[in-house]
Amino acid sequence: MSPSSPSLSPAQVVDGQLRAYNAKDIDAFMAFWADDARLYQHPDTLLASGAAEIRARHVLRFQEPNLHGRLLHRVAVGATVVDHEVVTRTFPEGPGTVEVIGIYEVVAGRISRAWFTLGTPLLGEAAPLGQRKPRLSSRETRRPTCARHPLWHQELRHDEKGPRLAGPARYRLCLP
């Protein structure tokens, strides 16, 4: 995958920058960002403006020995890509994980703007969201994926007679 190639889809551009992030390769990482890119804490707090500021933020981040972003789910529509990730890193309080939603706007094969929302860091050996084992009894609600749309789940209740709808057909948006 050639960085910043206009022939790459927006999802491929975002995937390339995630791979460079995990490799801690600052030059490859920056090749996916536009020179005038802007980085925000969602919704509108500007964190870095321009390639030089984005590079400076990530040079420091890439020094963390355990840094790794694990993609849980990606949605791409047009020039917008939304990633749900679990990032392992070293916080001031110690090593841990944090859930991250990244929203990327890709123009001409490069990321022009990105917004990030972070969950609460889990310190120590806590398993990130994608690795947690469900601890549901047979009477608790489970949410299997709906075959028509992977983000919508119909609530089912499991009991001694097997899975059943939990009331009328209720659907809700649920990121895996």
UniProtKB/TrEMBL annotation:
Every SnoaL-like domain range: 17-113
Matching InterPro entries: NTF2-like_dom_sf, SnoaL-like
SUPFAM superfamilies found in the cross-reference section: NTF2-like (SSF54427)
Cited Pfam families: SnoaL_2
Leader sequence segment: none
Name of the protein this chain belongs to: SnoaL-like domain-containing protein
Species this chain originates from: Nitrospirillum amazonense
Species classification: Bacteria, Pseudomonadati, Pseudomonadota, Alphaproteobacteria, Rhodospirillales
